[in-house]
Amino acid sequence: MTAHIARTDSIGLRHSSGFALLEFVVALALFTLAMWGVMSAQIVTARASYDALQRTVALSLARDMAARVRANPGVLHDYALRTSVNAISDARDSFTDCHAIACTPRQLAHFDLREWQRGLNGEWEQEGGVPVGVLLSPSACVGGHDGVLEVLVSWVTLAAKGSLVSAPCSPAASQDTPPLARRTGREFLRLRIELALLQ
Q1: Residue 134 falls inside a structural domain
Q2: In this structure, is residue 56 part of a structural domain?
Q3: Rounded CA gap, 4 and 145, in Å?
Q4: Of all helices (H) and strands (E), which one includes residue 191?
């Protein structure tokens, strides 16, 4: 009877150790899947956060242009800009510096556009002399007519591989913006302001 109990214990121990190894492997697999899910969620959250930051910067740039035009409404038609992707802003000394001297309204419009393009290209924020702008491959269109200012800012999302297609500037292209965005991986922000409402 004593030998039989020892044998049962011996078999029981073998079965217990086998189940413990199987339980460990299953627990390890579940832990790995859980960690993978957490890491994937972190990546998706980081991308969504960066995309939201890009949209915020684009809206801030559009509002900045509206404020510049509001301060200089007499030359609305001079506020015309079409940038290509990764366009380099004009040399700083090619325009009058309206921070240093008084400018005519037309000079101020050209100065505003140049400064705004520098902001679009990320030159307002620099680290070690290198622009660190948020928008990836930005392009923009600015136009004013009949008391209406239109600003279109376009950029590549972080999740997209990126397209170097510039923003469509023609008014007819506004209906094509969502399909174009889906096709190219670009995001668009269009701001249309009636300047009479800003007075």
Answers
A1: yes
A2: no
A3: 100
A4: strand 186-194
pLDDT in tens, 129-152: 777 777 888 888 888 877 888 899
Number of domain units in the chain: 1
Cα angle value 109/80/183 (rounded, 5°):
140
CB 65 within 8 A of CB 151: yes
C-alpha span between 28 and 26 (Å, rounded) = 5
Q: At what angle do helices 105-120 and 2-71 cross, to 10 degrees?
A: 170
DSSP annotation of 42: H
Is 52 a domain residue?
no
Query: pTM (2 decimals)?
Result: 0.69
**What pLDDT, in 10s, does the model give residues 27-69?**
999 999 999 999 999 988 888 888 888 899 999 999 999 899 8
> Which range among 23-32, 164-173, 180-189 shows the weakest confidence by mean pLDDT?
164-173
Q: Name the amino acid, one letter, at 49.
A: S
Among 148, 149, 144, 153, CA closest to 116: 153
3-state secondary structure 128-154: CCEECCCCEEEEEEEEEECCEEEEEEE
Closest CA to 179 of 194, 165, 192, 193: 165
